[in-house]
Design goal:
single chain; mainly alpha
């Protein structure tokens, strides 16, 4: 019982959500071929397929019947559900994008004397 229910659900899904419903139109293909063969006994099945599937669509007297053939047109609307399974957790080494360096700035006391400040004003030494 479970397998038959699964087969029915699978066929229902394939018919509605894929181009499988075109397979159900195969009897129309053979019926249309029989009509062509009644008009012209010399037409072979391969010639019939080439006439209807290879080349451009010719709007002739049986154009509406031609459009009812399987895989002739596509009116399928895809309603797919995608369930993504996340991959195993991959850990990559952490590489810093930029580094922050902290320098300690020490301020001189306001009244500190430095010999460097006044060395520019000293006369050259020989």
């Amino acid at each position: 019982m479970k397998t038959s229910g699964a087969i029915v659900l699978l066929l229902l899904y394939l018919t509605v959500n894929t181009e499988f419903h075109q397979v159900l139109k195969i009897p129309a293909l053979f019926t249309h071929y029989a009509e062509h063969q009644q008009q012209n006994r010399a037409v072979q099945f391969i010639d019939f397929l080439i006439l209807h599937y290879a080349g451009e669509d010719v709007k002739d007297a049986d154009y509406d019947q031609d459009q009812q053939l399987p895989f002739k047109n596509s009116h399928c609307i895809q309603n797919s559900i995608f369930i993504g399974i996340p991959p195993e957790k991959i850990s990559a080494p952490s590489i810093p994008l930029f580094t922050v360096s902290q320098k300690q700035l020490t301020a001189l006391p306001p009244f500190a004397t430095s010999s460097f400040r006044f060395s520019i004003w000293q006369p050259p030494k020989a």
